[in-house]
C-alpha cells in the first residue's frame, strides 16, 4: 500500500534521532481529493488509513531530504510503500515501528512494518495534498462564541485554582473550582508509545466530575501529540486491514475546544487533521466543538482570565499569564 507522510522531528538534532512519519494512505487521499477536501470527508472515510505514525531511523531517509523537510517553512510530503513483510525484491525493506498515540496500556511487542525509501512527492501531487489538507477556514468566526462561554465560567464570583495532572511525558492541566472540579482544561496530553514508561497506570479519570456549567472546555497550547492524546481511547495497528484503528473518547470530544489555527508553518500531519476533523464534525449544544484562535490576535482577557498567544522559535502556544504552577496553586 502506498502512503503519503509528513516527517516530524521531536527533540534532538536532525539526522541523529528517529524520524516520525505522519501518514495518510494514497487511497484515503484520493477519496479526500474527490469529495473536495477535509471538511467533506466522512468520519468513516477519515478513520480508514489516516493517521498512522511510523518511527524510522534517520538513515532511512536521504540526508538532503531530511534537511529540506526540517528547514522548509511549509510541509514536505514524502511517499513510500508499506508492507507487513520485508520485500527485498520490491525494495520495501526498511524497518518502521508503528507508534501508538493512545492512552490504553501498551501490551505485547511493538508492531514492525517495512517501507520503501521515502521520496518527495512530485510538485503536482504535493500541491494537491496541500489543498486537501487545508483546514484553516473550518472555524473562522467561532472564537467569539468560545470567549462568551469563558466569560460565564470566569465571572468575578467563585474561587479558581490551577492543577497539573500527572500524565508522564505530556501536558495536562486545568483550572478548577473550590471543589477541585475542572472548569477549563489547558491541554489534554498523554505520552506517545515511545515515552509510555512514565505514564500512570491506570490513567487519571479526568471526566468523571463536571460542574453545573457542563463539560469543561479545552484550550490547546500547540499541536504536539503529547498535548492532546488523552482524547484518544486507543490507537493501534490492525494487520488484517493494514491500517490504524483509532478510537476517541466521546467525552473528550463532546466539549468546546480552542486550538491554534492550522497555519502552513505549523506543518501539521494527517494525525493532527484527524483530530481537527473530529472536532469539526462534533456538535456541542448545537454548534461545532472546533474553535480557532484568530490570526493576528495575541491577547484576550475577561474579568479574571487572560489568554496570551506566545511564540518560541519553533512552536506557538497559548498560556494564561495569570495561572499559578503546580497542584493547588492560587489563581490570581
List keywords for this structure.
332 residues, alpha+beta, 2 domains, seven-stranded mixed beta sheet, 21 strands, disordered C terminus
How would you describe this protein?
This protein is of the alpha+beta class. The chain has 2 domains: 2-132, no CATH class; 143-330, no CATH class. 18% of the residues lie in helices and 29% in strands. It has helices at residues 26-35, 43-47, 63-71, 123-132, 143-153, 250-253, 270-281, and strands at residues 2-8, 19-25, 50-56, 78-83, 94-98, 112-115, 119-120, 161-164, 172-176, 182-188, 218-219, 232-238, 243-248, 257-259, 283-284, 287-288, 290-292, 299-302, 305-311, 316-319, 329-330. It is globular and about 70 Å long. InterPro entries: RibonucZ/Hydroxyglut_hydro.
Summarize the structure.
With about 325 residues, the chain is an alpha+beta fold. The protein is built from 7 helices and 21 strands. The relative contact order is 0.16.
Shape: globular
Q: Radius of gyration from the CA trace? A: 20 Å
| pLDDT averaged over residues | 86
Number of domains: 2
Question: What's the β-strand tally?
Answer: 21
Strand content: 25-35%
Strand order of the largest sheet: 17-14-11-10-9-8-21
